[in-house]
Give the backbone structure.
Amino acid sequence: MLSRVADSCFWLSRYIERAETNARILDVNMQLILDFEDQAPHLVQRHWQPVLATLEDQELYNELYTEVTPDAVLEFVTFEKKNPHAIVTSIANARENARTVREQISSEMWEQLNRTHLYLRDGRGRADFTDSPIDFYRRLVDQLHAFQGTTDATMLHGDGWDFLQLGKYLERADSTSRVLDIKYHILLPSGEKVGGNADITQWMAVLRSCSGMEAYLKTFVGQVTGWQVAEFLTLHDEFPRSIRFCVDQLDGALHRISDCDRGHFSNEAERLCGSLRSTLDYTTIGAVFQSGLHQFLDQTQLSLIQIADAITQTYCQWKDE
Amino acid sequence: MNGLLKDYEVGDFFDEMFSAPGKVRPHYELLAQRLGEMADGELERKCLLAEKSYLSQGITFTVYSGDEGTERIFPFDLIPRIIPAKEWAHVERGLVQRLTALNLFLHDIYHDQRILKEKIIPEEIVFSAKHFRPELIGFDVPKNIYIHICGTDLIRDREGVYSVLEDNGRCPSGVSYVLENRQAMKRVFPKLFNKYPVRPVDRYAQDLLAALRHVAPHDNPDPTVVVLSPGVFNSAYFEHSFLARSMGIEIVTGNDLLVKDARVFMKTTRGLKQVDVIYRRIDDDFIDPTVFRKDSVLGVPGIIEAYRKGNVNLANAVGTGVADDKVTYYYVPRMIKFYLGEEPILPNIETYLTSDESDQKYVLENLENLVVKAANESGGYGMLIGPHATKAEIEKFRAAILEDPRGYVAQPVINLSRSPSFCDGHAEGRHIDLRPYIISGEKTSIIPGGLTRVALRKGSLVVNSSQGGGSKDTWVLDDDDQTSDDEGQSQSQSRIENRESKISPC
């Protein structure tokens, strides 16, 4: 397929995934805060700060707003057109990429995505948001899931589809690592202990942000612990949002595109991805915590960035001759 | 008449639906009846439904203003235009004849120039045409086809005679609307399609692909064909991608292609892949910065070299613009006689050449009554409609004509035929034209009907979308008897009424 088209498929998919992650993070955080007994502004604020930190948009936020309030963060991450990572921007970018590859993707995919874009643009999304932000985010996530389903069911599972998979799983692995990292940024209220009520509530929120609560409960019996949540989200081999699962899918898609056998590599992207995959396959959560979860996640994010660059260089860029 | 058509004013024009006030032409009777039965607000609702479907499918063009583009749909009028089979057969014969002559003309002027030597057309007319490409003289295009896709604009005058207004032989656009309009009509008026034997239009993409494959270099039996578009910011991008999708081929932009050893390749994830035929939607001027406009960033450097070496074919051919020059247009009837020995089936509009002394005198004396057109513009730009123009506009054109007499032609104001169109809750007469799309491949094929453009502004004669025009679905009937013969009609009606009772109302 055309290199430009491969690039657009890759990015189309990343933007969709990014919008979905943001919608879920906001949804979960709102619910988490509603559970607080004490709704004092400084406590509430302390729970929105990490969201900004995770999305790495703190600087722009500070330019646009004077203080961290729930409304401002929701607005900034959802509707703020100046924010390149806002949900509306991500969907608009996904759609713009889709528009340039309409002959590659199915009409059903295009229409599904276009409907979501129009929903956010023509005031209906805003109206739903005003009525109930939580319902709004759910609706949005539903629409994006419908896009994934439509993609699976209507598009040829060839190179174009594989480039969509690359974008999706790369972004998803990155998102999961960031969501997990939120916990690093949240301070426990004074007097609370690790393993105490507040700590567990926070870990459950992390799971929910990855749609992983139910799957987690099927895997681990009994009390939710930080240790197990971290293991589940990084190393589980069947949960579709765990980092290991995503990297494995990424590796599979890369090898389908190149026709190279798995376990071998034919380009830099495959080499980097294979190396990350084997780390995730053979490490243990004990080892991860020993070297520090935050450091481990940071390193993973760095590897993902390198893989993305290598994909672009291998498939999407042509030096002028 | 009742309902939507109540108080419909036929006016002093040829009306497509009415032969006289209150008197419906036979092939429109069923439609008029259906419109008459419609409840208040029904057509309005259908309109909204159609608009919504266009919007959700992204069948839009982008208007840029301020920091973000606004997407608009091309206005669509739900009242179709109907053309009886016999009438269409006549139009079709006329178009085939015209395209045959135009292709022969292009071959001639890029080779022996017989038509110039025999002084049928003054040679300075051709040599001074802006889109004449002397670089291509002596070059043989595959299968001698120059205009693979032509959009010829037809109008009907007060007597209902079909005449040719202009030929668009470079990159005619709009065909995607023909196909999408039909889809929209089927959604909102399913029952009407049971009543009329409407000829389908959906073979267009397959015919186009067959024609493009037919002209592959070196008779390659399995050529790689692509659509070359200026890119996503072009207002016709939707159409480019629509056509690529309908043909199942790649759409590329200039940056996706490169030329190596006089061959054209596209840059793919698996390396370079040679391209054989390019359906290009970029004008000659922009296609190769090494040959034509140096500042073009849309084109592919070296592509003309590959073309001249016969390693790639372009559709339409380079240099076809000389045939749709509005001064050349004047000579098309003579071309038809010269090359084919036939009388033109479809007449031209009476045209005055301002480069001709006596014509120029007449034109300058009558500017307020004439339409003046720049010879090389399209899309309704560079045009003066005398009766609607201000003094200042008229003087501007007078000066322009004197400055560049070869650059303009003038025509009498033609009162284009009108068709009932849905405006503010009822039907009003609006002027229309017709652009059929003619594909020249192994044979010449014409999409049944084409794009009926309608000037939605009251009284306006300009149908271009850039000037407030919209479009209608165009129905060419397969068999006139079913709708025009009284007995046949009532039979088919009762047959349909039976069927209707079984399906839910539309």
